[in-house]
Design a protein that fits this description.
Elements: H1 12-19, H2 26-34, H3 43-54, H4 57-62, H5 65-69, H6 75-98, H7 107-117, E1 124-130, E2 136-144, H8 154-163, E3 168-174, H9 184-198, E4 203-211, E5 214-217, H10 218-221
Parallel strand pairs: 3-4
Antiparallel strand pairs: 1-2, 1-3, 4-5
Length: 224
C-alpha cells in the first residue's frame, strides 16, 4: 500500500495528530520515522518488510547499524536516525530511573535493561549503582563476553562501587541463547559478588537475567 493512495485522513501522520501515537500500528509508526520510500516501494512497504525481516521492532532496534544501513530503502542516514531514536528512549528510561527509588519504582530499570540487553549477540554484564536512598548514581556496562559466557571479576566490581560511592548495587546480564533461566554459574557469581561487596558495607539488591523480552529477578526467585 502506497501512502499516496491512502485518503488524507487515514494517513499515519494525520491519524497520529488526530488520535495520538497509540492508535498507529508498528508498521505505521516505523513508516513515519522512515518518512520516504524508494522507487517502487513506499515507506509503509519498507517498514512492513523490516518488521518481518527482524521479527519485530525489538529485533530491528537491536540490530547493528551497519546491518540496517545495508538494506535497500534505508542507507546510513535512516539507519542512524533509527539508532538515535533507540538511544533517546534509553536515556529517557535512565532519567526516569534516576528520579525515583529503584526499589519502589523498578519498572524503568527493567525496561531499560530489556531495551539495552535483549538483542546483544554476546553476554554483557551491567552494574546499577545506587545511593543510600536507592536512587541511581551510575549505570555501567562493566564486562563483555562471548556468546556463551563473560568473565566478571568481583574485585573490579567492588572498586567501581567504591569509586561511585554506592550504598547498594543491582546487577544484570543477558543470555544471548534466549533462555532467561539463571544458570548455576550465575548463582555462584552472584553470591561471590554479594559477599565481596558486603565486606565494604555495600548491599546487593538484585541480579536480573535478560533474554529477549523475558527478565528474571534473583530477588524474586529467592536466590539472594
Amino acid at each position: 500500500m502506497n501512502v499516496a493512495n491512502v485518503a488524507v485522513d487515514e494517513r499515519p501522520r494525520e491519524r497520529l495528530l488526530r488520535h495520538g501515537a497509540a492508535v498507529l500500528s508498528d508498521t505505521e509508526l516505523l513508516a513515519l520515522l522512515l518518512r520516504t520510500g524508494v522507487a517502487g516501494c513506499s515507506a509503509l512497504a519498507i517498514a512492513r518488510d523490516l518488521i518481518a525481516r527482524f521479527g519485530g521492532l525489538a529485533g530491528l532496534f537491536g540490530a547493528p547499524v551497519r546491518e540496517v544501513s545495508a538494506i535497500r530503502g534505508l542507507g546510513p542516514a535512516k539507519a542512524a536516525e533509527l539508532a538515535a531514536v533507540v538511544e533517546i528512549v534509553r536515556r529517557s528510561l535512565v532519567e526516569e530511573a534516576a528520579a525515583a527509588d529503584a526499589l519502589t519504582s523498578p519498572q524503568a530499570v527493567r525496561d531499560y535493561l530489556r531495551l539495552t540487553l535483549r538483542a546483544r549477540p554476546y553476554e554483557v554484564f551491567v552494574g546499577i549503582f545506587l545511593d543510600s536512598q536507592n536512587r541511581l548514581l551510575a549505570l555501567e556496562e562493566m564486562f563483555r563476553g562471548t556468546l556463551a559466557q563473560t568473565s566478571v571479576y568481583p574485585r573490579e566490581v567492588v572498586k567501581t562501587a567504591l569509586a561511585r560511592n554506592a550504598a547498594a548495587v543491582i546487577f544484570a546480564h543477558n543470555h544471548p541463547s534466549g533462555v532467561a533461566e539463571p544458570s548455576r554459574a550465575d548463582e555462584l557469581l552472584t553470591q561471590a559478588l554479594k559477599q565481596a561487596l558486603a565486606l565494604v558495607d555495600i548491599r546487593t539488591l538484585d541480579h536480573f537475567v535478560v533474554a529477549g523480552s523475558h527478565l528474571v529477578s534473583f530477588a524474586e526467585r529467592g536466590l539472594l
